[in-house]
Design brief:
single chain, alpha/beta, Arginase, Chain A, 8-stranded parallel beta sheet, 11 helices, 8 strands, about 35% helix, about 15% strand
């Protein structure tokens, strides 16, 4: 990877899910030397601090649902608007926005902030979950299970229209990787809309390096690629510090090989790294591994 001007953007939202601690994720990852490690790879790195909306993350109201059954709707909407503006400003400086969360609802804001610059944005969604629910299909009402659906124009009109009106992504420009815990409505939606999906069984059969290579070829006509990586894509034997662990995931060594391949494409223009929860972690081990993941996103290799 050539030298990149990276803007680290902390996104300490916990409003999309019910477990306390994920709002501490950005600072836990910083504590493990994120900026230092990325700078040592030769990149020009600026830490822009944390984005906050009108509601502070420690004051979440996780028991309040709106008329559509969405939990913390106003807080998620407000935060998403603030984050979208910060991401767009980073892009306007020709920088690479690297958003560190925080729960996965933040991707509503991060990808909405990309939409004015990229008309045909591709997305690699590496996650144990599809995050493609809406208010009708979600079993919980937690918005961290809905960001991809929102970005495709499904569900709450107010969330869909964040930053500017309408869907921000096209079905044919998304690749799901490593999924292994899909709700029934998500399975139906993925099949009906022909969304490219490599389940964890596919990853085990092909290898993550092959999956990433195939995914990049599939997205080759996009004008940019956004990576959204949830640490719960990793196997629980590897990580403890995340809120929705699912057995049978990707091992860190496999992940780093795949990310090394991804780092070589010039189409990669932005990334999210989400769902690190230090309150559930063991001696900040997950945050340490998140920094290692970040290094490989930005060109680290074993030799």
């Amino acid at each position: 990877m050539s030298v990149v001007k990276i803007d680290i953007i902390g996104a300490p939202t916990a409003f999309g899910q019910p477990k306390l601690g994920v709002s501490l994720g950005p600072d836990a990852v910083r504590f493990c030397g994120l900026k230092k490690h990325l700078s040592e790879l030769g990149h020009d790195v600026a830490d822009l601090g944390n984005v906050y909306g009108s509601y502070r993350p420690e004051y979440g109201t996780h028991d309040i649902k709106n008329d559509e059954g969405l939990i913390n709707f106003e807080q998620v909407k407000d935060f998403s608007e603030r984050l979208a503006s910060t991401v767009e400003a980073s892009l306007n400086r020709n920088h690479f926005p690297f958003i560190v969360g925080g729960d996965h609802s933040l991707s509503i804001g991060s990808i909405s902030g990309m939409a004015n610059k990229y008309n045909n944005l591709g997305v690699l969604w590496i996650d144990a979950h599809g995050d493609i629910n809406n208010s009708e299909t979600s079993p919980s009402g937690n918005i961290h299970g809905m960001p991809l659906g929102v970005l495709l124009g499904e569900g709450s009109e107010e969330l869909v229209n964040i930053h500017h009106e309408g869907a921000k992504l096209k079905h044919e420009n998304i690749v799901l990787i490593g999924v292994r815990d899909l709700d029934s409505g998500e399975k139906t939606y993925i099949k009906e809309h022909g969304i490219k999906c490599y389940t964890m069984s596919d990853v085990e059969r092909l290898g993550l390096d092959v999956v990433i290579t195939k995914s990049l070829k599939y997205l080759q006509d996009c004008d940019g690629i956004h990576l959204s990586l949830d640490v719960d894509s990793l196997d629980p034997l590897e990580i403890q510090g995340t809120g929705t662990k699912v057995a049978g995931g990707i091992f860190l060594s496999e992940m780093l090989i795949g990310l090394n391949i991804l780092s070589k494409t010039e189409l990669l223009v932005s990334a999210d790294l989400v769902e690190v929860n230090p309150l559930l972690d063991d001696c900040n081990d997950t945050a340490e591994k998140a920094v290692k993941i970040a290094e490989y996103i930005f060109g680290q290799s074993q030799l």
